[in-house]
Automatic annotation (TrEMBL), chain A:
InterPro entries found in the cross-reference section: PhnJ
Organism annotation: Thalassovita litoralis
Any one of the GO BP annotations: organic phosphonate catabolic process
Keyword annotations from UniProtKB, A to Z: 4Fe-4S, Iron, Iron-sulfur, Lyase, Metal-binding, S-adenosyl-L-methionine
UniProt name for this protein: Alpha-D-ribose 1-methylphosphonate 5-phosphate C-P lyase
Superkingdom of this protein's organism: Bacteria
Family affiliation: Belongs to the PhnJ family.
One protein family per Pfam: PhnJ
E.C. number: 4.7.1.1
Record field: catalytic activity: alpha-D-ribose 1-methylphosphonate 5-phosphate + AH2 + S-adenosyl-L-methionine = alpha-D-ribose 1,2-cyclic phosphate 5-phosphate + methane + 5'-deoxyadenosine + L-methionine + A + H(+)
Nucleotidyltransferase as UniProt keyword: no
Molecular function via GO: 4 iron, 4 sulfur cluster binding; alpha-D-ribose 1-methylphosphonate 5-phosphate C-P-lyase activity; metal ion binding
UniProtKB/TrEMBL annotation, chain B:
Compositional bias ranges of the Basic and acidic residues kind: 174-183
Taxonomic source organism: Thalassovita litoralis
Protein origin, superkingdom: Bacteria
UniProt protein name: Alpha-D-ribose 1-methylphosphonate 5-triphosphate synthase subunit PhnI
InterPro entries: PhnI (IPR008773)
């Protein structure tokens, strides 16, 4: 294989991306256009997140990559390998050991620290996209702070279904200004968007970067009489017994039998290592699986 | 007993090893060489170069071999390689009027200086499977004729002299670069043409076809279609002259379109323009038609609301690498999102069933 620059991208490109990141941090929730590069993985498979990670990674950093909360999902494995190969950085599955965490669709259960960076992969950065398909229009709407359409949509949900029918990628308002798409995380994760770590969002195909600085004010859109509710399956994890973590539902037999397990695999492993055992769990052994 | 799914890494490695075997196919059949693909699958190579935006027949052939003949996958390989290449500078614009043509036809004039040259074309072949080719690939030598090198001026220049065709504004400003800046709208014509020339052939063809069928109809004649090689020249610092660094094969199409005139323009002919790497005739003609349709605003035409007139629609959806990536990403795990939808649907169902129950009681 030929030699690539550290973390694949050339330094000029990283500089361009870092400028976009800094602008994004200065204007929280604003979608900064950036000249996204063609990456050696397909658009829609994390190219935005990968470019942001490549721009913030330092050689001494330890990196963690998760997809659906898990380190071992195929695309997370693929992206982790990409950085092992092109940046030579150490990788980890432990949330607390990581300096940079790239994620798709989840925020880790464990609270992040000020010295950590969480990088999101974003498919459609525009929260108004499915209400207005034209980018020329939605940029205007953001500029004019014209978010009535979004509120009407949420209202119509309630009128029709008795509830806001958005379960993931639930829109938020940042510092009272920009309405932002938190990427397709379940709305269960929305309250965690106010955190100590820097959060960076990269959308490669759509050529946008946006950011949340630490402790930024992030409010999930709702109504006084229909307040936002972070929901999850009404179960405990069958492996570690946790009652507060986000759960995956797994079908275990042909008769529709199912069990619930933590979507955050590192969190679940940590709890089982600490002696917590769920209804169907077994005492923890390293590499038992 | 359920155990958490592990082994993604092993599964990926095994899948890729299998893929490599499948790519090779039956090992008792001779392996294809890159040179064979380059020489005998030339039009596939041309498409990969055009949509990959990289003129290198050997690399395009390698990409086709590696991609098992999936041209979009091959284009992807070329694009990903292309972005890693350093840029030494920009060449001078190629002078297509000086093209060394292997083909040059006009549908608007029976004859013109430079003549009509059919060249190596599928046109007028009968599309009958040649079963002889399956057994014996040798070809009889094609007849040749001595010609004097003579200039082959652009056909539209003749219309231009009479003032019958709209003249294009001249500009020496460097066009924006689609691969180095985010696409922001409205896009100027140079940027639109960049997007079209690397856009998916099928998409551009479909868009062009839709204009022929009446969605922003603008009857186009092929004023000229020419295929041939052009010298690529570059200004080298410390040299007072441009240096020829190579040549590229190009297909250029200029359409001549009826135009009744508008509030801002008198009745005259207007142009659509297509320029594509390699012998890529279908793409170049399609590009010219779509280019013309997208020019409605500057010509003061009505917006018929047709897809081919919609710059945002065309430019945002023409790129097959963006499209295929996003389309195929729905294969990736989405179970976290699906789980949250499951909860929501169960809850809404329970509420609705409760309401029905109450109504029945």
């Amino acid at each position: 294989m030929q030699e690539y620059n550290f973390a694949y991208l050339d330094e000029q490109t990283k500089r361009m991306i870092r400028r976009a990141i800094l602008k994004g941090l200065a204007v929280p929730g604003y979608q900064v256009p950036f000249a996204s590069r063609e990456m050696p993985m397909p658009y829609g498979w994390g190219t935005g997140g990968v470019q942001v990670s490549a721009a913030v990674l330092m050689p001494e950093d330890v990196m963690k990559v998760i997809d659906q909360g898990a380190d071992d999902t195929t695309n997370a494995v693929s992206i982790r390998k990409f950085f092992e190969r092109t940046a030579g950085v150490d990788t980890t599955e432990r949330t607390s050991d990581a300096d940079v965490i790239q994620t798709r669709h989840r925020i880790p259960e464990e609270a992040l620290r000020e010295d950590q960076i969480l990088v999101y992969q974003v498919p459609i950065p525009e929260p108004l996209r499915f209400l207005e398909p034209r980018e020329t229009e939605t940029r205007k709407m953001h500029a004019l702070e014209e978010y009535g359409l979004m509120h009407v949509k949420l209202y119509e949900d309630i009128a029709r279904n008795g509830a806001i029918a958005t379960a993931y990628a639930y829109p938020v308002r940042v510092e009272g200004r920009y309405v932002m798409d938190p990427s397709p995380i379940p709305k269960f994760d929305n309250p965690k968007l106010e955190m100590a770590a820097i959060q960076l969002f990269g959308a490669g195909r759509e050529q946008r970067i946006y950011a949340l600085p630490p402790y930024c004010n992030v409010v999930s859109l709702d109504f006084e009489d229909y307040p936002f509710e972070a929901s999850k399956a009404d179960h405990a994890c069958d492996l570690c017994g946790c009652e507060t973590s986000y759960l995956d539902e797994v079908i275990v037999d042909d008769a529709g039998g199912r069990m619930f397990v933590c979507s955050d695999t590192d969190f679940c492993r940590g709890r089982r290592a600490a002696g917590h055992i769920g209804v169907q769990g077994t005492p923890f052994e390293e590499d038992a699986a | 007993m359920y155990v958490a799914v592990k082994g993604g890494e092993k599964a990926i490695d095994a899948a890729h090893a299998w893929l490599a075997e499948e790519r090779r196919g039956d090992v008792s059949v001779t392996e294809l060489s890159v040179a064979q693909i380059r020489e005998q699958m030339t039009l596939a190579v041309n498409r990969v170069m055009a949509e990959g935006s990289l003129y290198d027949p050997d690399l395009a052939a390698l990409a086709i071999k590696q991609a098992r003949g999936d041209l979009i996958e091959a284009i992807f390989l070329i694009r990903a390689y292309r972005t890693t290449l350093p840029r030494f500078g920009a060449t001078r614009p190629v002078e297509t009027a000086d093209m060394d043509c292997i083909r040059r036809v006009s549908a608007t004039f029976k004859d013109a200086p430079g003549g009509q040259v059919l060249g190596p074309t599928f046109d007028y072949t009968h599309r009958l499977l040649d079963f002889k080719l399956a057994a014996d690939g040798t070809v009889p030598e094609a007849p040749t004729r001595e010609t004097e090198p003579a200039p082959v001026p652009h056909i539209t220049e003749f219309l231009n002299k009479e003032g019958l065709i709209q003249s294009e504004p001249q500009s020496d400003t460097a066009p924006r670069d689609l691969t180095r800046e985010p696409l922001e709208l409205p896009a100027d014509r140079a940027l639109r043409l960049q997007s079209l020339t690397r856009g998916d052939e099928g998409f551009i063809l479909g868009m062009a076809y839709s204009t022929q069928r009446g969605y922003a109809r603008n009857h186009a004649f092929v004023g000229e279609l020419r295929i041939g090689t052009c010298a690529v020249e570059m200004d080298i610092p410390e040299q007072s002259f441009a240096v020829e660094i190579g040549e590229v094969e190009l297909t250029e199409c200029e359409t001549v379109n009826q135009f009744k005139g508008s509030k801002v323009e008198p009745p005259q002919f207007t142009r659509g323009y297509g320029l594509v790497f390699g012998q890529t005739e279908r793409k170049a003609i399609s590009m010219a038609l779509v280019d013309r349709a997208l020019r409605w605003k500057e010509l003061g035409e009505d917006n018929a609301g047709a897809p081919a007139q919609d710059e945002e629609f065309v430019l945002y959806h023409a790129d097959n690498i963006q499209a295929t990536g996003f389309l195929e990403h729905i294969k990736l795990p989405h179970y976290v999102d699906f789980q949250s939808e499951l909860e929501l649907v169960r809850k809404m169902r329970a509420d609705a069933m409760g309401a029905l129950q109450e109504a029945a009681e």
